Predict the 3D structure of the following.
Amino acid sequence: MKDSNVYLKLLDCCQVGNRVYFLSITFNGLFYLDIEDFSIHFVHNFSFERKNIQVLSELSLYHENALYFFPHSTNVIMKYDIMKRHEESIPMNGYRWKFFAAAGIIRQHNLVYIFSLHLKNGIYVFNLQNQNVEKDRKLSSLFEDDSVCSSVFLINDNCVLISMLGTNRFVEVNLDTKQIISVKTLNADIDIYSVCYDGNSYWILSRCSTDIYEWNRENDTLQVYKNENAIWEEPKYRPYSTMIFLEDEILVLNGSLKSILHVNKEKKTIDDPIVMPQGYRLVNDNLNHLNIYNCYTVLDDKVLIYPCRGNMLLIYDKATRSMLGKEFTVSETEVTYLKEVLQEDFMGEKICTENENLDTLDRFLQIVETNQSPSQLSVAEDIGQLIFEQTIK
């Protein structure tokens, strides 16, 4: 029987030489992409987490031959030494819950400050030298229980700027004195989803509006860019995910819009959609709450844009401003435990499973072959149609 193929999806990546390392968000798997030939290679799965766990991490860091993945749906920092091929679990000391959801990290020399999405969960400090993580209680006490972190930026040697999700506010905090320096409130109609920094201005992406705001903090000026012809996918969550600042153009990656767009600084608009490659499409309705594309790597002549809901790795040529695509999949041949993951997904949320993988009734029966009782069997909604189609052939 043929292998099951699963589309790889990611929210963050970490470049080390000619390799881009990333964690799958639909199951427990560490991979790397070779940027020379765009081949995908399986590296490891973390033994201390379930194989079918979803969104282990959204943030990563590379330091002295080791990859560090900061916790999302777990409560430990996952370390992998790429030279020794050795894993390690680093506990978040004092954190009692399983789900942490790191929203931002700031590195200062050997210290990494970890900001939880829900700031009531705390701000933790990871010491790269002694590999210890402790909660900074004074910093954590600065925020109310309903404070939600969107993005964090280091603005000088000891101060950070935090954008607050679902608000129009930025909070400046001194990491040394552990005090709030200032709170900046922008236009009332701004509803922050994410913020990007181009080295000069902060670009504010909204949760609902297709407008993008450019805030120059030094001059305290605000410029709005309009998208008058937005075309949405369903459901309509956030229009944009992030921005890519190149030498002579600005790309806006799509959250729930159909296309990747450009910022026109002269006209103050967001338009000029990029033509997607032939064969491009969205896959896996179970992920429709996530951005379509979310992260990227800028190379000398290309930009690699990684899928969250799309079926392809996108390869953007800077010179021609054209897009190529490569299907971004892995099979049971590369990942030997993939069948086990698919079995668990059929029995539960099936976030990893693509409709097109249920290609034959034989394949379905092979996947769900298990000792569980019939009452535990919850199958994909497409299987009835598949049985019908194949029994009338």
Remarks:
- The longest strand covers residues 57-63.
- Residues 355-363, 370-381 have pLDDT under 50 and may be disordered.
